[in-house]
Write a structure and sequence with these properties.
This protein has helices spanning 2-15, 17-31, 36-75, 86-94, 99-115, 130-143, 146-173, 185-188, 191-201, 214-221, 227-241, 246-288, 307-326, 341-351, 356-387, 410-420, 423-463, and strands at residues 81-83, 121-123, 180-181, 295-297, 332-333, 400-402. By secondary structure, it is mainly alpha-helical.
Length: 464
């Protein structure tokens, strides 16, 4: 029985997100009371939308990735930690001997939190469990203690589901996708720095008065502000910086224009498939848990196609390479993961409501944190890869591997550090920080929102 369950689970994982998502969504639809035909059609529509998004992201990566790497090589940065990409890190994660224990622990945490009403996120994005799992795997490798490894991934799961809950209004208000949260660590991690930085920027005279959005850019630039033209210009510029000839640079520019135009259409298809599931989930939650909402936890790929996100990411790619060169103490060379910067910036764009100046400032700050964390943990990640028989090819004389994923992410790095440091010091600090965020978002912020609503209501009554 157990063997059959594990075989089915492994088959689902190996099939990848485009197969796994329709299957999981169909099962969830049936659970929430949809008829089989409607649940299956909804799941298939979601799968088609995700496949379309994935094809476009792969297309973007296959075009932008080599151009970004060529730009790095052309500029001549010489660092000893190579960014080998999130795919290599995922392979290391799923090859770990303790991955089964960690995956089921993460799943169990989600169910327990739902039952105890400590989260509203039902995470169906099992593929991206690897972001939470790699932290536990690295902790286990360093400490040789399986319980600390599982514990680290459990803490990652708890905090990820809560961050997904707290950031859900951003998804609904800015991206226009209701009933969905995004428990994808590679996207949500930036919020740990973006939240306080956004608060700070709102209180700096001068900066707090600047609110330039993509629409403003398009308005001021006229013809050159059109999204297609911006994609053409930025894509061509990256090609030229990479040493491409005029023809190849223009081809890259047209490719980026195509991504900017087509990917929002795929996102709308995704939303179309999601709506029946979202509505059924809300009806079910109203029956089972009165006055409670449930959010379907999906891959952040559903929002990275936003035009503000893609445009900001294209601007940040050359700036990220420049940062790697000038930051004192940085050893990490941005390379394979340059093309997935949209994931790292998506929540920043939503948080600032598309404010270009804030996006660049916060984007550079969060990227700086990734470069330093990636530099610090690269030796451990390199040894871990070798220990489980995965040899990741390196180039350009790099001695260590890293990526813009794993423990390079601020969230993952802090949890990892807490579990491998002196526990009697790091554990109380970690618990205190988590408690601080929890109290703010669960107690202080709701009270402040209620007070503001009451003030607005009184003002409206007085105006009459």
């Amino acid at each position: 029985m157990w063997s059959a369950i594990m075989s089915g689970f492994n088959w689902l994982i190996d099939a990848g997100p485009t197969v796994m998502l329709p299957v999981i969504i169909t099962v969830i639809g049936l659970f929430f009371g949809l008829k089989l035909g409607k649940a299956f059609k909804s799941g298939l529509t979601l799968g088609i939308g995700f496949a379309g998004i994935k094809l476009l992201l792969d297309y973007m990566s296959s075009n932008l990735g080599p151009a970004s790497r060529a730009m790095v090589e052309n500029i001549g940065i010489n660092l000893d930690v190579l960014d080998v990409g999130w795919g290599s890190i995922a392979a290391i994660t799923w090859s770990s001997p303790i991955i089964v224990f960690i995956v089921f622990s993460i799943f169990a945490v989600n169910i327990i939190m739902l039952l105890t009403k400590t989260t509203s996120t039902l995470d169906v994005d099992i593929w991206n469990y690897h972001h939470m799992a790699i932290v536990g795997i690295m902790v286990h490798y360093v400490t040789k203690n399986i319980w600390l490894g599982i514990g680290a991934s459990v803490v990652m799961a708890i905090t990820t589901f809560k961050i997904a809950d707290w950031s859900q209004p951003l998804i609904e208000k800015f991206f226009g996708i209701p009933g969905v949260s995004l428990p994808t660590v590679s996207a949500t991690s930036t919020l740990l720095l973006a939240w306080p930085l956004n608060w700070l920027l709102d209180r700096i005279p001068g900066i707090n008065k600047v609110n330039i959005t993509l629409k403003d850019v398009q308005k001021y630039l006229g013809f050159f502000g059109d999204q297609m033209i911006l994609g053409l210009i930025l894509g061509s510029a990256i090609g030229l910086l990479g040493g491409y000839n005029i023809t190849a640079s223009l081809q890259l520019g047209v490719s980026m224009s195509a991504v900017l135009v087509i990917i929002p259409k795929m996102t709308s298809l995704f939303v179309e498939g999601l709506m029946p599931i979202s509505e059924a989930a809300q009806d079910w939650s109203q029956r089972k848990f009165k006055n409670r909402k449930l959010f379907i936890g999906l891959d952040a790929a559903v929002v990275v196609g936003n035009q503000d996100v893609i445009t900001t990411a294209l601007i940040l790619i050359p700036l990220t390479i420049g940062l790697a060169f000038i930051l004192p103490g940085n050893r990490m060379l941005p390379f394979a993961d340059l093309a997935i910067i949209p994931f790292r910036i998506a929540f920043v764009v939503a948080l600032t409501r598309g404010n270009f100046l804030k996006n660049i400032i916060i984007g550079l700050a969060t990227t700086t944190a990734i470069l330093y964390a990636g530099s610090i943990t690269a030796p451990i990640l390199t040894d871990l890869a070798s220990s489980i028989g995965i040899e990741v090819a390196v180039a350009g004389g790099a001695l260590f591997i890293s990526s813009f994923s794993a423990t390079s992410l601020t969230h993952s790095f802090l949890i990892f550090f807490a579990f491998v440091g002196p526990l009697f010091i790091t554990m109380p600090i970690m618990i205190a920080v988590i408690a601080l965020f929890w109290v703010y978002f669960e107690v202080i912020k709701p009270k402040s929102k209620k007070t503001n609503e009451e003030i607005e209501l009184v003002s409206e009554e007085q105006s009459y």
